[in-house]
Amino acid sequence: MSISGDQNHPYAQPQPPSQPPTPPPGPYGQVGQSGPAGTGPAAQSAGPVPAQQNPYAQSAPYPSPGQPPAGTYGYPAPGTGLPPSTPPGGPGSPDAPGKGARGWLWALGGAVGALAMGGAVLFATGALEDAQPTADLAGYSYTSDLCAITSLTPYENAGFKTKPAGSAGSKGDNPQHSGIQQNSLDSMWCNTELQPSSAGSGSSTDYSSMWVYSAATLHKKADPTPEFADTYHAYESQKSSITYKVTQVSGIGDEAYLVTRNEESNSTSSYVLLGVRQGWMTYQVTWSSYTSSSSGKPPSTDQIADMLKNSTTETLKKLRH
After folding, report:
1. CA 100-105-106 angle, 5° bins
2. CA dist., res. 101 & res. 110, Å (int)
3. Which of 35, 47, 67, 283 has its CA at a distance of 20 to 30 angstroms from the CA of residue 238?
4. Measured between alpha carbons, how far is 284 from 110 in angstroms, rounded to an integer?
């Protein structure tokens, strides 16, 4: 059976042309950027697709495996000389989604890295340590035995003496001292029990108790200046049946405060303390006493204040070496 010359066979395929047809231009004059030939906005804007004789006919040869048809997404038609385009939103594309955020994160990461590197350099060169304030100890230094340099002369001139260790009412050594050196501060203490000079060394009938507590602190990391005054003014704000008076004292250190407890006129007890700061050194001496009736009249607040001031002045001279 033969087929006449002009009759089209329904399954016949035309021979591919020597040159693949160039896809119609896209909406912005770009070739092959809108999808396969005959589809997409570019093809629609170029007008209707010419009618094909056979629904199975193809106008171009099949592409090689793994390669999209000519003129499809991201690939130009052969022979156009155009490089493959970057898909919208791909790396390097101006409209890439999140490009601004990624750029910002890269910039932030670079800034953090630079700061970390700068901090490492400062640490290695000691610049960070140099930024710390240097302790102003005003020439004072640590001693393991503060009692050895504590001046008792003002108390002795006022009619008192050190109570012998082991006597009635006395416990342990007298005076007693201790001290410790730490990274942030050095601390020294001295406690001395006194008694009236007229009292017998073995008397068991005198229940008087007179103590002088002194403490010196060398602040090596933090400046005590901002809080020093408030520490003593806080006594005036105590809400209790006992009230205190705070007076600033001149002529001792950079600043000094005298704290006295308000006593009744017939009181036989006393509590007075003196706080001194010079540079980053602080010193405090406290008088606490109870005088029995057999010991006579106790010293007045003013007399105690004078003893503390004179003892402090002489003691700090010895500590400053």
Report:
1. 95
2. 14
3. 283
4. 53
Phi-psi map region of 255: left, alpha, beta (phi>0 left; psi -120 to 50 alpha): beta
Dump strand ranges (E) for the chain. 160-162, 176-181, 185-196, 209-219, 244-249, 255-261, 269-278, 281-290
Among candidates 94, 82, 91, which has minimal Cα distance to 30?
82
According to the model, what pLDDT value does residue 36 have?
Answer: 46
Chunked into runs of 10 residues, the chain (321 residues) has average pLDDT values of 48 52 49 46 48 52 50 49 49 50 62 64 54 90 97 95 76 90 97 86 65 98 97 92 95 98 86 98 96 78 97 97 74
- 3-class DSSP assignment, residue 128: helix
Distance CA 181, CA 143 (A): 9
Query: What angle (nearest 5°) sits at the alpha carbon of residue 189, between those of residues 186 and 194?
Result: 165
Query: What is the per-residue pLDDT for 166?
Result: 72
> Alpha-carbon distance 302 to 320, whole Å?
27
Task: Look at residues 2, 24, 16 and name the one whose alpha carbon lies nearest to residue 57.
Answer: 16
Q: Which of 273, 283, 255 is nearest to 140 (CA)?
A: 283
Predicted local confidence at residue 301, as pLDDT:
94
Cβ contact 128:122 at 8 Å? yes
pLDDT for 209 equals 87
